[in-house]
Amino acid sequence: MREAFHDQLDGIFADLSEICGQVEIAVREATKALMTGDIHIADQVISGDKAIDAARERVDDTSFALLSLQQPVAGDLRMIVSALRMVSELERMGDLSVHVAKIARLRVPAVAVPDELRPTMERMGETAEDMVRRVRSIIVDRDVDAAIELGRADEVMDQLRRRSFTELLSTDWHHGVEAAVDIALLGRYYERIADHAVSVANRVVFVVTGEQPARD
C-alpha cells in the first residue's frame, strides 16, 4: 500500500512537469502571436488553455484523494500540499499566456507592439519561456540549487519591466493611449509569469528541505 501511495505521489509530480511543458508552449506561442499578429496562433493559445485547466483538475482530484484516503504526515503531506499550490500557480501562468494572446488577437491585423518596443517585449517573452522551462527541470530533478538560482534570475525580468515603463513614459511616445495600455498590461503579464515560476521553484525547495528559501 505504501509503495502504491508513493507511486501516486511521484505521478503527481510527473503531472506537474507535464503541465509545465504545456505552459512553456503557451508562453512561446503567445509571444509569437504577439510579435506577428497571427490570429490563428493566438486562437490556439486561447483554446489550448482548456487542456491546462483539465490537467489542473486531475492533479487536484488525485491530491485530495490521497489526503482523504492515506492521511499522509510529515514529508508526504508537505509534498501533497505543495503540489496543490504549485498546480494553481502553473494554471495561472497559462491564464496569463492567454491574456497575452488576447491582446495580440485584439489588434489583428495590426501588431500590438510598436517597433521600438519589440526588442524589450521579445526579451520579456523569451525570459518568461526560459524560466518556465527551467521550472520544469527543477520539478523533475527536485533541484534545490537551480530553484534558488531561478529566484535570482527573476531580476532580469524586473529590469525588462522597468525598461518597458521607461520607453512607455518617454516624451517620444506617439502611439496613443491604446498602445500604452497594451504595453503596460503585457509587461505585467510577463512579470507575473516570472513571479509564479519563482513561486513554484520555491515550493520545490520546501518539498525537498522542509524550509522556505531565504529571500534576498
Automatic annotation (TrEMBL):
Q: Which parts of the sequence belong to the PhoU domain? A: 17-103, 122-204
Q: How does it assemble?
A: Homodimer.
What job does this protein perform?
A: Plays a role in the regulation of phosphate uptake.
The text of the family note is:
Belongs to the PhoU family.
Tell me which SUPFAM superfamilies the record gives.
Answer: PhoU-like
Q: Which domain of life is it from?
A: Bacteria
Query: Does the record carry Chloroplast as a key word?
Result: no
Entry keyword set: Cytoplasm, Phosphate transport, Transport
Q: Where in the cell is it found?
A: Cytoplasm
Keyword Cytoplasm attributed: yes
The protein here is known as: Phosphate-specific transport system accessory protein PhoU
The family database entries (InterPro entries) matched by this protein are listed as:
PhoU, PhoU-like_sf, PhoU_dom
